[in-house]
Automatic annotation (TrEMBL):
It comes from Microbacterium aurugineum. It comes from the Bacteria. This is Polymerase nucleotidyl transferase domain-containing protein. InterPro entries: NT_sf. Gene3D superfamilies: Beta Polymerase, domain 2.
Length: 230
């Protein structure tokens, strides 16, 4: 099955006024698995029946395929893309820049160029946010050191992996992610540092994992506790 052709049939029947359509995710990268869906970014004006609506995130089933749709007017896209940049996780900007176009009204190249520049500039971590993130990590580290229940240890360690991985990325101007994309982004930053952090967690070696978190925390500015005001 040609996934681009099926996506075009879906768009024609469900979002016919879309002027830009981009297939993203594993389908665009030709890395689909048995459970992969199709991620679609759609932009158009007017795109929705309601003229006041500017965005929609929706899940559809079509011809046996699940479509995860992110649909926007141009103003709606700009609003949500800016939010993503501010939150260090510009998902729809990555979709726009890295996905596979299947509709283009002639404006896509200029649109992509603008957002590509912002994406390439990287993320900026303020001193205030760095301190807050390090405060949270410090607290989680102490909880991990104190935890004796194996389930509590695993839950805290997993949270700590997410928080320290985000700090590692942001401290060097990289964008963050959630789920499977967080370790992928971390490996793109440094395969060696990703393995040094992840290997003891996978092995259940809590002490070694905590020690590695301490190293990365010092690298990012160190512990934050007494005197911190939030």
């Amino acid at each position: 099955m040609d996934h681009a052709e099926r996506a075009e049939r879906f768009i024609a029947g469900t979002y016919p006024r879309a002027r830009i359509a981009i297939v993203a995710g594993s389908t665009a990268r030709e890395e689909r698995t048995a459970t992969s869906d199709t991620d679609l970014l759609l932009i158009g004006d007017p795109l929705f029946d309601d003229p006041t609506q500017s965005s929609e995130a929706a899940t559809h089933e079509f011809e046996g395929e699940i479509f995860e749709v992110f649909a926007y007017t141009p103003d709606g896209f700009a609003e949500w893309a800016d939010r993503g940049l501010d939150n260090h996780r510009p998902v729809i900007v990555h979709m726009l820049v890295e996905g596979m176009p299947i509709r283009d009204d002639g404006s896509l190249d200029e649109f992509r160029a603008h957002w590509s520049r912002l994406l390439a500039a990287g993320s900026t971590l303020t001193a205030e946010e760095s301190a807050f993130r390090r405060y949270v990590i410090t607290d989680l580290l102490d909880d991990l050191h104190d935890a004796e229940d194996p389930l509590e240890q695993r839950v805290v360690a997993n949270l700590l992996f997410e928080r320290i991985a985000e700090l590692m990325l942001l401290s060097e101007g990289h964008w963050v992610a959630t789920g499977k994309w967080l370790p992928r982004r971390l490996r793109s930053l440094s395969p060696e540092r990703a393995d040094l952090l992840g290997d003891p967690l996978l092995a259940g070696d809590i002490a070694r994992f905590a020690a590695r978190v301490e190293i990365e925390l010092r690298r990012a500015g160190g512990r934050v506790q007494a005197g911190f005001v939030r």
